[in-house]
């Protein structure tokens, strides 16, 4: 079990794209081009790009960031998801790869899987 955990984006179809910490925007930009991802935000009248695009498309962002360290506790998320529900493929990937996650990521992942995100 690694305490460093995982870092990257998990797509709706269960593909994990790894990146280094603080490299999520660069990877999001690359995935946008390589996967031909595109979405127009009617409300803002703009095309979404990079992180905003992946988040809106239902990708899950896994981070190892410790920016929220308060004493011995973390006040931040290690798993960011803005959709309504995880896809079956995302749930399956998380269940199969939970031991690759840090203890903080595992805890957050288990809680969100139980709650049925």
Please give a structural write-up.
- The chain is of the alpha+beta class.
- The chain has one domain.
- Helices cover 35% and strands 16% of the residues.
- A 4-stranded antiparallel β-sheet has the order 2-1-5-8.
- Helix 1 crosses helix 2.
- The longest helix is centred in the last third of the chain and has 13 residues.
- The chain is globular.
- The mean pLDDT is 87.
Name the features:
two-stranded antiparallel sheet, 117 residues, 4-stranded antiparallel β-sheet, alpha+beta
Summed over residues and divided by their number, the pLDDT gives a mean of 87
Morphology: globular
> What count of structural domains?
1
Number of strands: 8
Distance between the termini: 25 Å
Helix tally equals 4
Which sheet architecture does the biggest sheet show? 4 strands, antiparallel
Strand neighbour order, sheet with most strands: 2-1-5-8
Q: What amount of the residues lies in strands?
A: 15-25%
Using only C-alpha atoms, the radius of gyration works out to 14 Å
Broad structural category: alpha+beta
Give the structure's gist in a few sentences.
With 117 residues, this protein is of the alpha+beta class. The chain is 35% helix and 16% strand. It contains four helices and eight strands, in the order ββαββαββββαα.
What is the fold's blueprint, element by element?
Blueprint: E1 8-10, E2 16-18, H1 24-34, E3 40-41, E4 46-47, H2 50-56, E5 60-62, E6 69-70, E7 73-74, E8 79-80, H3 88-97, H4 103-115
Antiparallel strand pairs: 1-2, 1-5, 3-4, 5-8, 6-7
Helix pairs in contact: 1-2
